[in-house]
């Protein structure tokens, strides 16, 4: 297969498996999505979805959030990990939203990246999922898949994002990054990977990755 045929194969296969794709983090508006994505750093979406209802019952908008102390926020979000940094970030960005944006989350990547505890990936997820602006947030699942499929060299998530944006049509980015996340979790995980059910990698996978898989399997 040529590179473009491989890309089309990925798009077609993912559309067949995931014609409709759920957003993994529960939220009701751009603000609650921003907080949920921030909390998801080095934490599972499942755990975030258990913690956010507790936090949002007290504060689901920046005005209510700044009525809480950083310590109160930290106590609630502690199970998500990195709670000292995340609680300061949530409080700080809520203040900025009130002072600069009338309490509204801006639909602007660079404006979001200027906020405390909001990195490029978090900002990309928010503009993509909350506002429908084309973006390609790369998480560990997408980074792994792009390498396994020989679409990137695996050196950095920044490089993976550039390669993904170059390979895939812009009008597909927002749906595709979610399809890839789900596919990576369900069919091509880092641990407990079974190549026999990983339809895409078994067809177009990087030879060295597939060879290594069978070597490990033979050693078991």
TrEMBL record:
Q: Which cofactor does it need?
A: [4Fe-4S] cluster
Q: Which EC class does it fall in?
A: lyase
Its Gene Ontology biological processes?
A: base-excision repair, AP site formation
UniProt GO molecular function: 4 iron, 4 sulfur cluster binding; class I DNA-(apurinic or apyrimidinic site) endonuclease activity; DNA binding; DNA N-glycosylase activity; metal ion binding
What EC identifiers does the entry list? 4.2.99.18
Q: Which reaction does it catalyse?
A: 2'-deoxyribonucleotide-(2'-deoxyribose 5'-phosphate)-2'-deoxyribonucleotide-DNA = a 3'-end 2'-deoxyribonucleotide-(2,3-dehydro-2,3-deoxyribose 5'-phosphate)-DNA + a 5'-end 5'-phospho-2'-deoxyribonucleoside-DNA + H(+)
**Per the annotation, how and in what number is the cofactor bound?**
Binds 1 [4Fe-4S] cluster.
Keyword Amino-acid biosynthesis assigned = no
Q: Does the keyword Lyase apply?
A: yes
The record's keywords, sorted A to Z, are:
4Fe-4S, DNA damage, DNA repair, DNA-binding, Endonuclease, Glycosidase, Hydrolase, Iron, Iron-sulfur, Lyase, Metal-binding, Nuclease
Q: Where is the HhH-GPD domain?
A: 39-186
UniProt xrefs under Pfam families: HhH-GPD (PF00730)
Described purpose of this protein according to its UniProt entry = DNA repair enzyme that has both DNA N-glycosylase activity and AP-lyase activity. The DNA N-glycosylase activity releases various damaged pyrimidines from DNA by cleaving the N-glycosidic bond, leaving an AP (apurinic/apyrimidinic) site. The AP-lyase activity cleaves the phosphodiester bond 3' to the AP site by a beta-elimination, leaving a 3'-terminal unsaturated sugar and a product with a terminal 5'-phosphate.
PANTHER family, sorted: A/G-SPECIFIC ADENINE GLYCOSYLASE/ENDONUCLEASE III, ENDONUCLEASE III
Q: Which family does it belong to?
A: Belongs to the Nth/MutY family.
Protein name from the UniProt record: Endonuclease III
Protein species of origin: Myroides phaeus
Traced from the root, the source organism's taxonomic lineage reads: Bacteria, Pseudomonadati, Bacteroidota, Flavobacteriia, Flavobacteriales
């Amino acid at each position: 297969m040529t590179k473009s045929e491989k890309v089309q194969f990925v798009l077609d296969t993912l559309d067949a498996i995931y014609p409709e794709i759920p957003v993994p983090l529960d939220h009701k508006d751009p603000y609650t999505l921003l907080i949920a994505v921030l909390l998801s750093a080095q934490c599972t979406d499942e755990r975030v979805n258990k913690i956010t209802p507790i936090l949002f019952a007290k504060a689901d908008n920046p005005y209510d959030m700044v009525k809480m102390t950083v310590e109160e926020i930290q106590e609630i979000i502690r199970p998500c990990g990195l709670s000292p940094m995340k609680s300061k970030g949530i409080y700080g960005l809520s203040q900025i939203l009130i002072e600069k944006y009338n309490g509204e989350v801006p639909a602007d990547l660079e404006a979001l990246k200027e906020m405390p505890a909001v990195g490029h990936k978090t900002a990309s997820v928010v503009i993509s999922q909350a506002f429908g602006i084309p973006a390609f947030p790369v998480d560990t699942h997408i980074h792994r898949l792009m390498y396994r499929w020989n679409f990137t060299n695996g050196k950095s998530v920044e490089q993976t994002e550039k390669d993904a944006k170059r390979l895939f049509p812009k009008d597909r980015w927002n749906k595709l990054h979610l399809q890839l996340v789900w596919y990576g979790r369900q069919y091509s995980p880092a641990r407990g990977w079974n190549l026999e059910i990983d339809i895409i990698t078994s067809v177009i996978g990087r030879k060295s990755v597939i060879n290594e898989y069978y070597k490990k399997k033979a050693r078991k």
